[in-house]
Amino acid sequence: MMTNKRQRSTVKIDVDENQFRSSCLREDAYVLFDYWANDDAVRKALHVKEGTVKKWIRCNYDLSYEKEIENIVEYHQNISTKGYESFIYSGDHDMIVPHISTEAWIRTLTNLSITEDWRPWFVDGQVAG
Predict the structure, then answer these.
(1) Tens of pLDDT, residues 69-126
(2) Residue 64: C-alpha distances to residues 24, 61, 126 (Å)
(3) Which residue in 2, 6, 103, 105 has a CA-CA distance of 20 to 30 Å to 96?
(4) DSSP per residue, 2-36
(5) What does DSSP assign to residue 95?
């Protein structure tokens, strides 16, 4: 019987106590996350490919993304009734379209059946969704 064991590691992050205190006074709950997300040991533990992300920035709206299609439900309903198969993928940490919204959308396509369970997908060996 195969078991799936996760390795637990401890990452020590040096925090400037003065900055931490001032941020707590401002009730900025994210300042520690900024330290954590930009720490080299954390990035290594999360398998972030070196050089792909410079500095993690909270609420980074400077993404090169262009919305081309407003609603694809009709499109998928149309092709699925013609017998075409669909490959639907969704990241589980997407705050614009979270995976539960994707699952709800799939349920609206009543003539579809799920042929494979949800699973991670990879780009160049790195988990992408």
Answers:
(1) 777 778 877 887 887 877 776 666 666 667 777 778 777 776 666 677 777 778 778 7
(2) 33, 9, 20
(3) 6
(4) ----PPP--------HHHHHHHHHTT-TTHHHHHH
(5) S
Element (H, E) at 127: strand 126-127
Angle at Cα 23 formed by Cα 18 and Cα 29, nearest 5°? 140
Report helix, strand and coil shares of the chain as percent, to nearest 5.
30, 5, 65
Give 114-117 contacts, CB < 8 A, sequence gap 24+.
Answer: 115/85
Which contiguous run of DSSP H or E holds residue 126?
A: strand 126-127
pLDDT digits (tens, 9 = 90+) for 48-62: 888 888 888 777 667
Per DSSP, 85 falls in state -
Contact 113, 106 (CB under 8 A): no
Q: What is the 3-state secondary structure (H, E, C) of 61-80?
A: CCCCCCCCCCCCHHHHHHHH
76, 108 contact by CB (below 8 A): no
